[in-house]
Amino acid sequence: MTTKKLKIGEILVSSGLITEEQLKTALSSQNQLGGTVGENLIRLGYLTEEVLLNALSEQTGLQHINLTRVEVPPSIQRLIQLETVRSRRLLPIGFEGKRLVVGMVDPTDLSALSEVEFQSGHTTKPVILSASHFDEALTQIQASGYGVNTLKLSEERPQRRIQPEGNIASLLKALVAWHGQDLHLSSGAIPSLRVDGEIRRMDIPALKPAEVESMVNAILTPGQKRAFEENLELDFAYSLDGVGRFRCNLYRQRGSLAFTARHVADKVPSATELSIPDFLLEYALRKQGFVLVTGPNGHGKTTTLANLVDTINRERKANIITIEDPIEYTHRHKNSNVNQREVGTDTISFSDGLRHIFRQNPDVIVIGELRDYESFSIALTAAETGHLVMATMHSMNATAAVDRIIDAFPSSQQAQVRAQLADCLQVVFSQRLLRRASGSGRILAWERMSSSLRVRNAIREGKVHLLRAMMQTNIEELVSIDWTLAELVASGKVRYEEALKYADNATYLNELLKVRGAYR
C-alpha cells in the first residue's frame, strides 16, 4: 500500500485528525524535545494515544498490538540488538509463520525494518506499538536486562474496591477499567464482574427488582422492549461512547429481570496477542472447506473467529459475508469486502440468513454460531460447493464437535452427512482460556483435529471415537489439548493446578510433563 510510505504527520493530516498548523507545531516540538511526531502531538493535546493508534491502523492497514497481552521470550529479544531497539523505538514480538513480528512506535520507518531484517535474518511483519507501552518495556529491560528474562508488561488494575454509581453506564465503565469479561445484574444480588474467569462482587448494595428494570430500560430501544415482551429473551449489542461495545443478554429469572453484558474490544486483537498458532491462520486463507472453532462459552471462540476474518480481510481479495447474533467485532473493508449481517436486524434467523446467502455471491461465509439442523446442513453444502465456511460451535473437544454435527441429522441422513463432512472438513480447533501463572490475564490452550486420510476415513466410517485415542500418539494432524497444556506449564505460563482443570487425560498430561522435566 502506498500509504505505508507516508510519514505519520501526513497520514494524520490527510485523515483530517490534525491541521497543517498543528503538525508544524508538533514538528517544532519534536526538534526541541525529541520523540516521534505522534508522541509530540499527544504531548501538545492535539490527539489522544488511542485516536493516534486507531488512525495509524486504519490508514496503514497495520494492526496495533497491546503489549500487555504478549510475552516476549529472551530468544526473540536477542534477534535484534538493544541499541536498535532503543534508537529505532521498536521491539521484536514473536513469529507469525516465518515472519518476525516487530512492534514499532513509528510503523512508517522503512529503514528501521531493513535494519531489523539484516540483523535477524528474517522477513518482518510490522505492527503498531504505543509509545507508552514501549517506554514501559524499555524501563523493564533496563531493570532486568535485555535478552535475559521474558518481557511481560502487567495490566494495570485498580487497587481499590469497585464503587460505581448506580447506573448502567458506570457499571460498564467499571467492567472495562478492571479488564473484565462480563457484567452480571440480577435482582436481590450485588452486581458482579467476571475478571479472568472469576466472579468479583462490586462495592455497592444488592439491587432491587425495580432498580434492575430501570437500569436496563434506559438502554433498550422501543423495538427491543417489544421483542423482549414477546420472547422473554433478548440478545442485543450496545455501545457506550468513550467506553466500548458490549454484547448483552436480557432474561427473566423468578419473575424479575436479569442482565449480562460482555465487553467486546474495539479492535480485533492480533494473532500474536491471542497466541493463535500459525497453522490455523493458514487454514483461514484456503479457498474452500470447513473451518470450525469450538469450546465452551466464554473461552474466546468469537475473538478467534474475528481474527481469522481479519486475516482474510488483509490477505485476500474476497467477498466475506457474516451472520452474527449479535455483531461483536466490526470489520472495515480492507483488501476484501466484509458484509456483516445481524440476526434480528438484518435477517430473521441464522437459518433464514443462510438460506439466501448463495445469492449474495460469497467467497467466505462466517457463521457466528452453528445451532440447528438447518444451519449445519447449509454450512456443509456451502463448504462442499467451493466456499470457505468458518463457524463457531459449543463442544467440549474437537471429536465431540464432529459427533454433535452428525447427531443433529436424522439417522437416515447420517451416512451422507459423514461423507460430506469427511470431504470438506479442514480443521476443528478446540480452545480454552486459562489463568496465567502471574494471576493477571488469560492465555490460550488448544487442541487440533485437521484433515488427513486417517481422519477422513474415521469420520466417513463413523469411528470418530478412535481419533480420541490417536491424540496421545503425537500425530501432526491430531494434537490433544494435554499437549498444549504441558507446554504452558513447562514454560511457566500456567500453573499445574490450573492446567489440570482443563486436562482431557491427567495421566497423559503428567507423562508429557515428565518428558519436559516439569512433572510435579
How many individual helices? 23
Average predicted confidence as pLDDT = 89
CATH-scheme architecture of the largest domain: 3-Layer(aba) Sandwich
Report the CATH C-level class of the largest domain: Alpha Beta
Helix content: 40-55%
Q: Report how far the terminal alpha carbons are from each other.
A: 51 Å
Oligomeric state of this protein = single chain
Order of strands across the biggest sheet? 13-12-14-15-11-16-17-18
Quickly give the structural class.
Answer: alpha/beta
Number of domains: 4
- Shape type: globular
What does this structure look like?
With 520 residues, the chain is α/β, with parallel strands linked by helices. The chain has four domains: 2-144, GMP Synthetase, Chain A, domain 3 (2-Layer Sandwich); 168-264, Beta-Lactamase (2-Layer Sandwich); 271-479, Rossmann fold (3-Layer(aba) Sandwich), CATH 3.40.50.300; 482-520, no CATH class. Helix content is 41%, strand content 21%. It has 23 helices and 18 strands. The strands form three sheets. Strands 13-12-14-15-11-16-17-18 form an eight-stranded mixed β-sheet, with helices on both faces. Strand 2 (90-96) and strand 3 (99-104) form a beta hairpin. The relative contact order is 0.07. The model is unreliable at 1-5 and 157-162 (pLDDT under 50).
